[in-house]
Amino acid sequence: MPNRSTDALFQLIKSLEKSEKRNFKLYVKRNSSNDSLKTIQLFDALDKMTEYDESQLLKKNKSISKTQLSNIKAALYKQILSSLRIIKDENNIDIQLHELMDHARILYNKGLYLQSLKVLKHLKDLAREHHQVTYLEQVLFFEKKIETLYITRSMRNRADQLSQESDEVTEALVLVNRLSNLALQLYSWYIQHGHARNEKDVRSIQLFFQTNLPADTLATKGFYEKLYLYQSYCWYAFIRLDFLQYYRYCQKWVDLFDQYPSMLAVETTNYIKGMHNLMGAHFDLLNHEKLAETIKKFEQFARHKLVTQNDNNRILTYQYLYTARINLYFLQGTFDKGLKMVPHLEEMLKEYGVYLDTH
What we know:
Layout: H1 8-14, H2 18-30, H3 36-48, H4 54-60, H5 66-85, H6 93-109, H7 113-129, H8 133-149, H9 158-193, H10 199-212, H11 223-239, H12 243-259, H13 263-266, H14 268-284, H15 288-302, H16 305-308, H17 311-332, H18 335-352
Helix pairs in contact: 2-5, 3-5, 6-7, 7-8, 8-9, 9-11, 11-12, 12-14, 14-15, 14-17, 15-17, 17-18
């Protein structure tokens, strides 16, 4: 019986743009070996398939045996990821920070401690600018390691400064961790149980929320602290069917990106999710005017390169956009407009179905 299960390598190849496929071929040629011939052969074979079928794959590629297939697939998967890695995304802060950390470690291993510290200083500034607290923790750990093991004389009162910075970062991380845990657990509660069905459910979720909400959260300063705080209140209100409070915190969630504009490129998916929930809140409140207004704003955002040049963002954006449009047609009673979307939506489901949530 053919193996038609969802295959990770097949999905990865099918997700590649033409330019990425071309880049992969060039990458393999630059790093060619005898073993690369079979990986290229497998790549081309999978690229031509419309559905993964292992028996047909082996039948049409006699030079690849069933016993070899697993290893060749693993090698090909790794090569594709490596080729994608060298296509730099200048807007990806994670890649930039990782690269700087790599540079700092290389300089450290060469014994160039002051140069390493200079790179770490740049990394730290960039991480602070984009509220990447986990990177700050890594940088501080590395800086303390260098200062402890070597006499750098990089600056006076270095020990006190690093200790103070470490305490501040640790405090911020603890708060981010607690709030992100709360948001995740509330969301998980909703996924498992849905809305509160009775007073017992309401009391249970209220007790859980009040017990796990950190004190003095209204005084939170950082982007991520506020983001997870607003998300927590969103799910808390949504579970209790308090749609007005749900709307208010969805709006705070979205407005946060106006307060921290640089974070839109860093946390694009969270912005998309926030807009999705905001449009959902307008629908729940039967506010078709606000829903139409927010859809228009989201349509403009859908043309942004943060969406058009990122598969994940593009798929999520259109998924949420079409859901919101259907909801708007429902509120307005313009069902004929909704029906006109059906053929297009069916095509989208065929093309992107593997990437969508199963629910």
